Amino acid sequence: MEERFMELSCEEFAERLAARTSVPGGGGACALAGALAAALCSMVGSFTIGKARFADVEDEVAGLMDEAEDVRFRLLELIEEDASGFSPLIEAYALPKGAPGRDEAIEEATEGACMAPLAMMGECCRAITLLERMGQIGTPTLASDVVTGALLALAALEGAGVNVSVNTAALRDRQQAARIDATCEELLEEYVGRARALADVIAEKIRGRA
């Protein structure tokens, strides 16, 4: 049976990440960090639901948790998709120089390698949006977990963006590269600031400075 990185233990995944192998790499690490961010959102919700003081928002919290779980599982899937997307690129570059179709194979594989990290960025943005709302209506007892989730999502978002850029930089089709880069920039411009603001505001409250 084919091995799935998402089914490895934390220790095993970290060992694979540290090893001299192409996958998992930075993309897989970003997807895992984003999944952890979504998991923390669900955790805050789990400690909110069932408490009388949060009865008025219980349904909304449950909805946030459902969506956070969708984000979490999608990002775990993207660990595998990122690894799968890298394999064709390795195979294309392994073709003899001058072989018929080599350049086309590299171009196609390079564009394909953009897709998983681009999808990660979208899921991380979803996680940030969910954490923003959970931070507003979830139990303040777990405020530090909202901050941690926001920072993990931020790191995953920016890291995935770099993983997209390293591939678009190699594309021969500069128009397609520009389109993909523009999508990345839009996400980064909006959500990096939102994640940072969320983390900073709550952290300041925790430290008693706000």
3D structure, described in words:
With 210 residues, this protein is mostly helical. It has a single domain, classed as Up-down Bundle (Four Helix Bundle (Hemerythrin (Met), subunit A)), CATH 1.20.120. Helix content is 77%, strand content 0%. Helix 4 packs parallel to helix 6. It is elongated. The N and C termini lie far apart (54 Å). The mean pLDDT is 94.
Shape: elongated
Number of helices: 6
Strand content: under 5%
CATH-defined superfamily: Formiminotetrahydrofolate cyclodeaminase monomer, up-and-down helical bundle
At the first level of CATH, what is the class?
Mainly Alpha
Spatial extent as radius of gyration:
19 Å
N-to-C SSE string, H for helix and E for strand: HHHHHH
Q: Whole-Å distance between the termini? A: 54 Å
Structural class by sheet pairing and helices: mainly alpha
Question: Which short descriptors sum up this protein?
Answer:
210 residues, single chain, Four Helix Bundle (Hemerythrin (Met), subunit A), mainly alpha
Summarize this entry quickly.
The chain is mainly α and 210 residues long. It contains 6 helices and no strands.
